[in-house]
Amino acid sequence: MPWSRPNRSLIAAVLPLASLGLLLAGSTTAHAAANPGPGFPAHYAAPYVETWNSPSAMASAQSATGLKYFSLAFVISDGTCNATFNGNTSISDTGWTSAINSLRASGGDVIASFGGAAGTELAQACTDVSSLQTQYQRVIDTLNLTRIDLDIEGAPLNDTAANDRRNQALANLQQQYAASGKTLAVDYTLPVMPTGLEANSISLLNNAKSHNLNVNLVNIMTMDYGASMDMGQAAINAATALQGQLGQIWTTKTAAQLWAMEGNTPMIGVNDSTNEVFTTANASTLESFAASHGIQELAYWSLGRDKACATNGTLSSTCSGTTQNPYQFASTFNALTGGAAPTAPTGRITGYGGKCVDVAGANTANGTAIQLYDCNGTAAQSWTVATNGSLQALGKCMDVTAAGTANGTQVQLYDCNGTGAQQWQHQSNGTLVNPASGRCLDATGPSSANGTRLQIWDCYGSANQQWNLPS
Question: pLDDT tens-digit profile of 20-36?
Answer without folding.
Answer: 233 333 333 335 666 66
